[in-house]
Amino acid sequence: MMFIDASALTAILTSEEDGPELLARMQKRGKRISSALAVWKRP
Fold this sequence. Notes:
The protein has a two-stranded parallel ribbon with strand order 1-2. It has helices spanning 6-13, 19-28, 36-39; strands at residues 2-3, 32-33. It has 3 helices and 2 strands, in the order E-H-H-E-H. It has one domain (2-39). The relative contact order is 0.31.
């Protein structure tokens, strides 16, 4: 199981340098979870 936080999602969606590596790690895990508070990131 892997918990995905807002910074990981942001890195993937905005094509940051570590985005592809984070995406690859996420794809290897069977179950991925997050929470509304982790996803809702205020600037």
